[in-house]
Amino acid sequence: MEEQNINQPEITEEEPQGSLPSHLDLAAGVFTEPRSVFDQLMKFPVRTSDWLIPLAVILLLSVASTYILFTNPAIVMEVRDKQMTQTEKALDEMVKSGQLTESQKEEQLTAAEDRIKDIGTPNAVIFQSAMIVIFGSLIYFLIGSVYLGIAKFFFAAEGEYKGILVASSLSGYINSVSIILMAIASMMMDTTFTDLSVATLAGMDKHTWAGFLTSRLDIFTIAAFFVFGVGMSRMMLQKEKESNYLILVFGMWLGFTTLWFLLTSYVPFFRMFAQ
């Protein structure tokens, strides 16, 4: 009876080639070679830190930006005036449509004045910062769930929820640069910048169709959505469907922003929320 060769190599599962990049390398790669970054990530198990760190950075920058801007009296006054104008215009429209009487309008206007006066106060800044963290996080996870559902249902994706979060968060580093630049520009020019689009830089009225359409021309927003689409296709293990995911991401963005523009333009109640 022949002896069995006990020195034969064991059969093991194939392991990913190379090593998982550090988070710093991932952050840098988002700006320089996003496809390569996500091509590497899709070969390894998803790390929680790869979506949690960018999310924390974005939220902290948003809170810090809010605090810095509201230390500028000129910006505080501008925000108050803008809010008051929008509120008064919306209430006037509700009176014209019969939704409010003149006396009800005056009551709501007085209440709005008291609320708007608090803008820029320490308590208001703390409250707004808390809302940024709470609602920012909720919206982030909700949007991730929506995209996961669409990817699973329409594209038969095999990726996991954390993969969507990683693609979303890493692309958010591009938005982080935008937040910093907006804060700097606002402080230098004593006016609020809500984005860095063509409409904002040209001083166009975003409540018109021309202003709305040119407000979509924001290099940072476009780049972030492009990286998100590219990343999502990889993290959902469907690299070959990159174009589908890009159409999905840009379609969702343009669809929802157009819907919001229509609501704030033609529905009186929503006009007070217009930027």
Largest sheet: none
Number of helices: 12
Task: Using the alpha-carbon principal axes, give the shape.
Answer: globular
Low-confidence stretches: 1-14
Tell how many strands the DSSP assignment holds. 0
How many structural domains does the protein architecture include? 1
Question: How would you sum up this structure in a few lines?
Answer:
With 275 residues, the chain is mostly helical. The protein has one domain. It contains twelve helices and no strands.
Itemize the secondary structure elements and their pairings:
Blueprint: H1 23-32, H2 34-41, H3 49-69, H4 73-96, H5 102-117, H6 122-155, H7 161-189, H8 198-201, H9 209-215, H10 219-235, H11 242-266, H12 268-271
Helix pairs in contact: 1-2, 1-7, 2-10, 3-6, 3-7, 4-5, 6-7, 7-10, 10-11
